[in-house]
Amino acid sequence: MNIYVGNLSSEVTDADLETVFSNYGKVSSVKIIRDMFTQESRGFGFIEMNNRNEAEKAIEQLNAYEIKGKKIVVNEARPRRDRKSKGRR
After folding, report:
1. pLDDT at position 80, please?
2. In contact, 66 and 20? CB cutoff 8 Å
3. What is the pLDDT of residues 47-77, one digit of tens each?
4. Cα–Cα distance for residue pair 42/44, rounded to 1 Å
5. What is the dihedral of CA 79, 80, 84, 86, to 10 degrees?
């Protein structure tokens, strides 16, 4: 299951998220989304957990959990939308 994590402090690392989420089960991947040019966190990321029950428990327990001074938002990630090309062919 793909999990969205928002309202992240710029100080939170992939390792921080993996540590917190691994308390609820096996984490397959962690990806904090970063600005393409500055590499600063954009304040959100994604966690992948293969076991749906573990993922749902993590969502339930960690939504509004505080990490590095900010309460995170945690929910199931929505499917990715196709991006429209901006005049490119």
Report:
1. 76
2. no
3. 999 999 999 999 999 999 999 999 999 999 9
4. 6
5. 160
Residue 17, helix vs strand vs coil: helix
CA distance 61 to 63: 6
Within 10 angstroms of residue 40's Cβ, the number of other Cβ atoms is: 9
In order, the DSSP letters of 30-75 are EEEEE-TTT--EEEEEEEE-S-HHHHHHHHHHHTT-EETTEE-EEE
59, with CB counted inside 10 A (0-12, 13-18, 19+), is: buried
How many C-alpha atoms does 68 have within 13 Å on its Cβ side?
Answer: 11
Model confidence, pTM: 0.87
Cβ-contact 34, 70 below 8 angstroms: no
pLDDT at 87 exceeding the cut of 80: no
